[in-house]
């Protein structure tokens, strides 16, 4: 028995459950339901007073409110300063990795920050290698076909 194939909607990769009727794509992405729109309209003029009240509650010892405010106010990541040498060639990435390892060992940066920096250096090094290989291939092709111009 052959069933009707599911056709993906315009705004979704795959339609789960019963698909909408022909010509009805469903609600557009990012649209808000009526309850959310009403709640936003009611709170629009009260925002500053609500924030003040939240700060008062946090100062009075409301730990969940304090955590809530700190999670939203403090930066998730911190600015770190370490001197990574210039990376003009792919093999210079080793020097950069050594600096990062030293900064982790000395406690200047966390292992997670070191991993993020190492990943950036690795990607940068790969980009340099690809550019270098591309230039070499272009030079070889130019030497094999001296009549062609770019």
Can you walk through the features of this model?
With 150 residues, this protein is mostly helical. The chain has helices at residues 34-43, 47-59, 63-73, 93-105, 111-144. Among the domains are: 34-73, no CATH class; 90-144, no CATH class. The N and C termini lie far apart (60 Å).
Task: Give the SSE layout.
Blueprint: H1 34-43, H2 47-59, H3 63-73, H4 93-105, H5 111-144
Helix pairs in contact: 2-3, 4-5
Sum up the structure in keywords.
150 residues, single chain, mainly alpha, 0% strand, 54% helix, flat
Q: What is the CA–CA distance across the termini?
A: 60 Å
Share in β-strands: under 5%
Q: Which stretches of 5+ consecutive residues score pLDDT under 50?
A: none
Helix content: 40-55%
The biggest beta sheet reads: none
Radius of gyration: 28 Å
Number of extended strands: 0
Strand and helix order = HHHHH
Q: Supply the helix-strand structural class.
A: mainly alpha
Please tell me the overall pLDDT: 83
Q: How many individual helices? A: 5
Shape: flat
